[in-house]
Amino acid sequence: MMKQILFAGVIGLFLTLIGTPLLIKLLARKGYGQYIRDDGPREHASKRGTPTMGGIAFILATIAAYFLSKVITSWTTDKAATPTFSGVLVLGLMAGMGLVGFLDDYIKIVKRRSLGLRAKAKMAGQLIVGIAFAVLALQFADARGNTPASTKLSFVQDFGWTIGPVLFVIWALFMILAMSNGVNLTDGLDGLATGASVLVFGAYTFIGVWQFQESCANAATLTNPAACYEVRDPLDLAVVSSALMGACLGFLWWNTSPAKIFMGDTGSLALGGALAGLAICSRTELLLALLGGLFVLITMSVVIQVGSFRLTGRRVFRMAPLQHHFELKGWSEVLVVVRFWIIQGICVIVGLGIFYAGWAAEK
């Protein structure tokens, strides 16, 4: 199984490195270019017309990398490497949210309608995908009775009382919508959301491997059985995370400043869905707020800006989301992106430290 993680990451990287420029040519030939807000930083005017909907590249690459890693592993080890329900559900959530984003991008760009999907239609699409994921995630119990998701809240592991299936679906929807919108708001500068996502997917690759090594299924051989993890398919979640990390890293080659392509809502909604799905299935729901701290910070900047303007008529930031505030203060785009990547890196380090501390505290 460990080989699958390596294969998935390498294949995802390779596919987006060679596939993204082909997508750029296709989108440019059809004239599917990005609209730029007139009230944004002046430097962004030069980006008008840059091909968008680039999320197609890493969505397809991730799915292909996941399944190809299974095939290659089966060939090289003579052992069947079959997909798991947890892995397929996270991929399905990513693809479903990506489809909603694609429809939004398509209407916005191809149909020349600036708002894309109507708000109600977009929300309905996200709700359908999210509810389907949440309901299915409570099915498919394994031999130990573990389903891909749990009806308990989780931080580094499940804790507290069971909230029941109805509240779980509502909670899962909140996570999916919050992370999707968080990545969408972060996707305002070249490479910012892509690079930040690479870091979080790297963290979830580590978490999946660690949970597999310390699984309660192997409690008899563990040195610290009291701290074992009841997660249905931890190693396969690591394979999904690795595929996403590699695919995003290859896409970043073309998405970094000056970007040759943007991910669009197609990519940002897909990445947000994938992050929420990984957190839910790995029983690290609340930890995601730390691991994806940059997305939370940028989302909160919008909430604060809107709330302040409605209550007092004054704006806290020169422009929201937060990255544009610093641009208007005179920071270059590359400076903002690199410093925000550093912030995201710190969030990942702190999150992983807390994850390990939660395991060590049970000794």
Describe the structure.
Belongs to the glycosyltransferase 4 family. MraY subfamily. It is a multi-pass membrane protein. Pathway: Cell wall biogenesis; peptidoglycan biosynthesis. The protein has 363 residues and is mainly α. The chain has one domain (1-362). 66% of the residues lie in helices and 2% in strands. It has helices at residues 2-30, 55-77, 85-109, 119-137, 164-186, 192-213, 234-255, 264-281, 288-291, 293-312, 322-328, 333-360, and strands at 152-154, 158-162. The chain has a two-stranded antiparallel ribbon with strand order 1-2. Strand 1 (152-154) and strand 2 (158-162) form a beta hairpin. Helix 2 packs antiparallel against helix 3 and helix 6 (192-213) packs parallel to helix 8. The chain is globular and about 60 Å long. It starts with a helix and ends with a helix.
Sheet-strand content, in percent, reads: under 5%
Sequence stretches where pLDDT stays below 50 over 5 or more residues: none
The total of beta strands comes to: 2
| Count of alpha and pi helical runs | 12
Largest sheet: 2 strands, antiparallel
Spatial separation of the terminal alpha carbons: 27 Å
Short description:
This protein is mainly α.
Topology:
Elements: H1 2-30, H2 55-77, H3 85-109, H4 119-137, E1 152-154, E2 158-162, H5 164-186, H6 192-213, H7 234-255, H8 264-281, H9 288-291, H10 293-312, H11 322-328, H12 333-360
Antiparallel strand pairs: 1-2
Helix pairs in contact: 1-2, 1-7, 2-3, 2-7, 2-8, 3-4, 3-7, 3-8, 4-5, 5-8, 5-10, 6-7, 6-8, 6-12
